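Justification of computing resources. Each target in the renewal requires a structure prediction run like the one illustrated here; the chain below, 269 residues long, is used simply to show the kind of job we budget for.
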Amino acid sequence: MGEFNNKVAIVTGAAHPMGMGYATSRRLAEAGASVVLTDRITDHDDQENLEARAEEIVAAGGEAVAIAVDVTMREQIDACIAHVIDRYGRLDILFNNAGSPVGVGDFLRMSDQQWDISYQVNIKGMANFCQAVLPHMIAQGGGAIVNNASMSGLGAVPLMAAYTASKFAVVGLTKALAAEFGARKVRVNAVCPGMIWTQMGQAELEHMREEGETFEQAKQRLVRADVVPLERWAAPAEVADAVAYLAGSRSSYISGVALPVAGGMAPGL
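Resulting C-alpha cells:
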C-alpha cells in the first residue's frame, strides 16, 4: 500500500511541467493520494496545460483532477475546497506552492505593483488557502500543510527585496499556524528550496547573469562549490520528496520547521 492511500491533497501552482508543484503532485499520486492540481488560468493554453498535468498523472495510474484557482481570489479558493469536499469527502494535505518571482530587481526602482503582487500571491493567497482548508482538517481530526518558502525566506541576497520580504513572511506564517493548530492535529511546515532547475529558476538565472557571461557560465557559477557544496542544481522531484516527507507519517512529530532543500547552500545575510 502507498503511504498516502485514501488521502486527498491539493497542490497550488501545479500547471508547469518543470515546476515543483507538478513534481509534487506526481510524487503524492505515486504514493496513493488523490491529487487536486490547481493554478491560475488566464487563457485557453493555461487551462490546457493544467489539465494536461492531471491527465499525465491519471495515465500513469494515479488519481488527479485539475481545478483553476487564482490564489489571490478568495472565492475561487472556496469554490475549489467545496468541489474537493463534495468529490472526495475529505482533505488531508495542502502544498502551498503557488508563487511569483516578480519582486526582484533594484530596490530603489521597485514599483508598487511588484510589492503588491509579491504580497498578494506569495503570502496572502497562501494564508487564504490555509484559512479555507483548516476547518476541514480540524473536523476530520488532522492534516498536514506544507508551504513553499524558498531560501529567500531564511536569508537575504541583493536585488530581491520584495520577494525576500514575502518569503520571510511565509516562514513566519508557517510557524504561527504550527503553534496555533498543533493541538488540533494539524502540522504546518515549510520547504525552502535553493537552486532548483524549474522554469522560475531559469528566469532568475537570466536575471542574475553578469555582463558578458553566457547562460551556461552563469548556470555553473551559481552552483560552484563555495556557493552550493553539492555543486549542482536540484531537480523539482527532489523538492517533491521533501514535501512528501513533511506531509506524511514519517514526520509525525515535526511541525513549524522551515526545511532547506538547497544542497548545503547558506541562506544569505
